[in-house]
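User: Hey, my collaborator sent me this sequence without any context and asked if I could get a structure. I don't really work with proteins. Can you help?
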Amino acid sequence: MIMIHRTNFLLTLFSSFSFVLFSAGIINSAYAEQNTTPNIIHGKVTDIIETSGYTYAEVDTGKKKVWAAGPNTPLKIGDMIGFSTQMPMENFHSKSMKRDFPIIYFVGGYITDKESSASKAGGMASTHSQITQKQVAKPVKGIHKIKDGHTIAEIHAQKQKLSGKTIRLRGKVTRFTSKVMGKNWLHIKDSSTADDLTVTTDITVAVDDIVIIEGKLTLDKDYNYGYFYPVLLEDAKVTKE
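Assistant: No problem. I've predicted the 3D structure and written it out in structure-token form, which is a compact way to encode the shape of the chain:
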């Protein structure tokens, strides 16, 4: 019984100590030992390239050097930063810089020892490649079926029947990515299901916009570079409500 109490006390103490370190923003230790979270890379900035709308950063993780591209951020050589690995691009060619990257990560913001630059990115109504995401784990309220249209639940349930057809729906933008592979990308949700729907378009919108979308439904779309979509609405016309 004494041993159980002692174990619980040590676990509580360790948890409290870990929280204090995280709250203090101590990111430098990540260079010596990588964060165990599989979707975050940490390391030291070894090179920076500034372009219109982008800050390209080369980061030394202690094991290898990798590149990321995010919204313009005041970084310096030697800074310790982190970023998400959610949007990798293999064999990426930058026309503006006339440079090839074996792999580069497009990020919505860099995590620094001060704050995440994603909070300063100014939303997603930008003409440059940025990523802003709101995590929504359930259907959104008040987004109902449009006349002569479909819900997202119906689209997923009837995808084989609707494949190749032009369909219309109403949705709320929960994620927006601009100018990746020549397209703008958005994820939308409605009140019919917790699932979302990925849409490509040349229209710029912002997270939380309510939109009417019309586009062709495509199944099992493979863009390579790790971009595979079982259900996708392509080249859609997007109108803000």
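In plain terms: The chain has two domains: 27-121, 133-240. You can pass these tokens on to your collaborator as they are.
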